[in-house]
C-alpha cells in the first residue's frame, strides 16, 4: 500500500538551541502543511487527499533537520527535482522553520528525505 501522504520537515535546533516550546515547533509544521494544502489545492492528488471520504485517513510523515541551512538545502533539492512544497518563513523573526510537500506517494518522493530523521 502506498497512500498519499504529506511530508513535513521541521528544525530540531528550534527546540535544542533556541529553546522554543514543542508546541511552537509543532505549529511551524502545521503552518507549512496548511499553506501547502492551500497552495496546491487544485492538484488532483491534493483534491483526493482532502476529499470528504478520505478525511479520516490522511497520512503525514514528520521529519527533522538540524538547522535552517539544512532546511534551505532540502528546499533547494526539492525544487531541483520538481517536488512541490511550501517553505514556511516565520515572521517577524524572518527565519525558515519548516516545509511541507503537497500530498505525494512515498514511492514518488521518499528518497528525497533520506537525509532527514523522523521527528522525535
What do these coordinates show?
It is a single chain. The longest helix is centred in the first third of the chain and has 18 residues. This protein is an alpha+beta fold. The protein is built from 5 helices and 6 strands; from the N terminus they run E-H-H-H-E-H-E-E-E-H-E. Helices cover 38% and strands 27% of the residues. The mean pLDDT is 97. Strands 1, 2, 3, 4, 5 and 6 form a 6-stranded mixed β-sheet that branches.
Features of this protein?
alpha+beta; 120 residues; 5 helices; six-stranded mixed beta sheet
Count of helical regions: 5
CA-based gyration radius: 14 Å
What sort of overall outline do the alpha carbons produce when their principal axes are compared?
globular
Helix/strand/pairing category: alpha+beta
What is the helical fraction, as a range of percent?
25-40%
Range of strand content: 25-35%
Order of helices and strands: EHHHEHEEEHE
Number of strands: 6
Mean pLDDT across all amino acids: 97
Largest sheet: 6 strands, mixed
Distance between the termini: 25 Å
Low-pLDDT segments: none
Quick description:
The chain has 120 residues and is an alpha+beta fold.
Helix/strand layout:
Layout: E1 4-11, H1 13-16, H2 22-39, H3 44-49, E2 59-65, H4 68-81, E3 85-90, E4 95-101, E5 104-105, H5 106-109, E6 117-118
Parallel strand pairs: 1-2
Antiparallel strand pairs: 1-4, 1-5, 2-6, 3-4
